[in-house]
Amino acid sequence: MSYPYPLLKPPSFAWDRSAAPAEPKVNEWIQTLDAARAGEFDWSNVDVALLGVPLSRSSISASAASENPDAMRRAWKYFTTYNLDHDVELSELHVVDVGDVRQHVTDIAKCHSHIREAMHAMRTHHPHVLPIMMGGDHSITAMLIKGYKDAHPKERVGILQLDTHFDLRDLADNGPSNGTPIRNLIESGTVAGEDVHNIGLHGFFNARSLKAYADEVGVHYTTLRQARAKGVAETVRDALVKLGERVDTIYLTVDMDVLDISYGPGVPASTPGGMRSDELFEAVHAAGLCKKVKAMDLVCLDPFKDRGEATVKAAVHVMLSFLTGFKQREQ
């Protein structure tokens, strides 16, 4: 099917951008692709494309993460485009919301196939544009990276994973769920185990067998306790340097369950002892600065479980913090 529509589905709503204020809010800045003229759209000056991936039927625990893309879109109104901490104005970037990957009501395999096709199409039609995906559960990451590899078969892809979990569960028991995306990529030969760096693991939320598998295939991992001793942002920078020495592309995947339950109440697998929100913002900002980070996703946020939009707002802040680093990259 043609790109973007009908391959994708237009967003369920779009913000009014007709006012064009001098100092816009994020909802007045991000452009929503006009479905009626999508085929005529000029991608030449676009910097970033946002894609919703509303799938959560593949979650181990009950989740409405499929509702997150629209929840994030609605929360854009709370944020300006100016980052005071870094004195960066994001409105100078051209960011376009292309809508959502079409999903099937019951067929998860078909949903995954659509996700893979969508990423392949994005990389084929506008390979210079940075894709940011709003999930959805973590199963989508395996499909997005496979789609990236379909479009760039000669590139070696590495993963920077910010997560409370390894996501290395056995596919034989769990299938292509949100508990298996990293193992899926390793066992399919899409990504080498040694090209995965996981930062944020902590506490009592990973079985010993998963650590054993990580050691067996060479996954690099840093517990949150270890990262805090060194500095979370510094740990991320070190991982990016090590990955950058081996791979052509680094894919950043942010599982919002890396946050402590008090900072991220709206995640299905929320846990005590996780990151503070400021640590996560600094981590993704560091990733945004790295030129080899060429795609990002944000997953596992259930707005139906959220409290006062705390986690949804944190997710938007994560996206904007990453874009701050992206904007600051040396030209």
TrEMBL record:
Binds 2 manganese ions per subunit. GO terms for molecular function: agmatinase activity; metal ion binding. GO terms for biological process: L-histidine metabolic process; putrescine biosynthetic process from arginine, via agmatine. Mn(2+) binds at residues 138, 163, 165, 167, 255, 257. InterPro entries: Ureohydrolase, Ureohydrolase_dom_sf. Gene3D superfamilies: Ureohydrolase domain. Keywords: Histidine metabolism, Hydrolase, Manganese, Metal-binding. Its cofactor is Mn(2+). The keyword Metal-binding applies. The keyword Transferase does not apply. PROSITE patterns: ARGINASE_2. Belongs to the arginase family. This is Formimidoylglutamase.
